[in-house]
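Postdoc handover notes: sequence design on the structure in folder B. Input tokens:
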């Protein structure tokens, strides 16, 4: 099972009302770096199961969400805790660097 796919309809229930932290990857089909990091996002979804939800928002399909959270460049990953964004990671990076950013929030 990979990352959860989010849109305006399920964002509130899956992210804002989540009892555990959520990593949300804002991406698009045409974005090269987004495609590079996609397998890492899916691996994290499996590895962090139960500790953190891992989800994706396609900015072309859910531009309102991208605007709401001031996502200006992609990939941008936001970490939500208690319904609030607590950290932002911009750009593709190796899995170990990504985990170093995520671990303090687990």
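Designed sequence:
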């Amino acid at each position: 099972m990979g990352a959860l796919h989010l849109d305006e309809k399920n964002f509130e229930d899956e992210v804002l009302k989540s009892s555990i932290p959520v990593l949300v990857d804002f991406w698009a089909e045409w974005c090269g770096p987004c495609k590079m990091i996609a397998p890492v996002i899916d691996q994290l979804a499996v590895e962090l199961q139960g500790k953190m939800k891992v989800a994706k928002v396609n900015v072309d399909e859910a531009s309102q969400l991208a605007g709401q959270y001031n996502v200006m460049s992609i990939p941008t990953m936001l970490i939500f805790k208690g319904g609030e964004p607590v950290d932002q990671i911009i750009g593709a990076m190796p899995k170990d660097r990504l985990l170093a950013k995520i671990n303090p929030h687990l």
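Context for whoever picks this up: DSSP finds four helices and five strands in the chain. Don't rerun without checking with the PI first.
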